[in-house]
Amino acid sequence: MITPNDILQKLAAMVGEKFPGEPVYQDLTPTDFQRPSSLVVYDGGKVNVGCGCQTVELRLQYTLSTFTPVDAYGHSDTEALHIRQMALIGMLLPGYIKVKGRAPKVGEVKLDGGYDFDSVTVTFHIALDRSEFEAIAQHSDMLTLHLRTEVETYG
User: Fold this and answer.
1) Mean pLDDT of the chain
2) Which CA distances in Å does 2 have to 47, 99, 129, 138?
3) Residue 29, class by beta-carbon neighbours within 10 Å (0-12 exposed, 13-18 middle, 19+ buried)?
């Protein structure tokens, strides 16, 4: 089964190959993060579950942001940002990515940006069999719950 985290990690690896030697942050950037760098975030998605169907269609959305050094006013070189944004789009041009033997398809791609970043938001489409979800519910680690209790007495 492919999870949103599997796609997130694959995208982070692809961005790392596109911009070698630069940090690729996942989900959050630290306070004084390094520039140039990139950020890959899972934004959520949609699930289409048909009544009686064997497949579950997922539409998972991710945002890939890219950063360059900023000047004293917090502005980046927008030309350099746009070039980096186009490089991120180039990673998606095959129309799919390979993840765990599957190929989630690239759906909608949106562009955004500001004075200190540019981003590409992409939606991936993948169909999974219902049995893959049932296997998660029956995972052996979820059958046992260990509790540690402590009792303190006063007096």
Assistant:
1) 90
2) 14, 7, 11, 17
3) middle
